[in-house]
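During the no-cost extension, the postdoctoral fellow (Dr. R.K.) reprocessed legacy sequence entries with the updated structure-token encoder. One reprocessed record is reproduced below for audit purposes.
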Amino acid sequence: MASNASVICKFSDGTIGYLRNAVTLDTATEVKTDASGLLNIAGDLSVGQAFQGKTLTHASVKVQTDSATTGAFGYASIIGVSGNIIGAIQGGGTQSTGLPRLKRPVKMTTGVKINVFAQAVADAVQYATLAVYCASGKVDIFTGLGVNATDVSMTSVVGGLTLGESLSNQQVVCYYSCYSSVNGVADTGIVNGVNAIFAEDASGQLKAMIYPCQGLGNPMQVPWIEDSFRVSQNDTLTLRANV
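Re-encoded structure tokens follow.
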């Protein structure tokens, strides 16, 4: 079954944007302005080109699978003109009271785009994702594909860096995490899996443990968790799943 991602955007001047594209599951896909012709929108434009000069302040993402409810949100990144991540967007559910505010506004310019990573919910090992904001303003997103009863190092989606390599000396201040398995990260007891993703220092001392959301999130968006930990150069982020 095909899946698509919708992104509703709101800008500081009150302008509303609507992005929608078919997405390839298990990979980041750029979502451009809706080209259905059902709305008065110039379609198939990257967000930065379509809304040049505007400041994005609110956004949310919804993943929809055709004739099914198995489409799950993994992460959404705002990519800058140099290819780095300059923002992260919440998703996974529907908001009846308005769009969630971005942690930090983002100025639109040609070359800025929005990528969405989606999966199908299944009783299987899945990709875990973690989007983080740091006190400095730095943003990064980490992923790792689960392997049954095995430690998997989660790495940044741009550059493939470990947690410590990407965020050395940074102070993480908030994050969200997703894992779209039907029964959770570690669903066959306590022997082979850890039911959270975990950050450790070089000696194996725990620095953070994070419960992922399933990514469906109805009726709410995947929430930002306001938490803080400092990252050192040799820190790692690990997924140990079982099914």
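Residues 3-241 form one domain. Residues 125 and 210 are 17 Å apart (CA to CA). The remaining legacy entries will be reprocessed before the final report is submitted.
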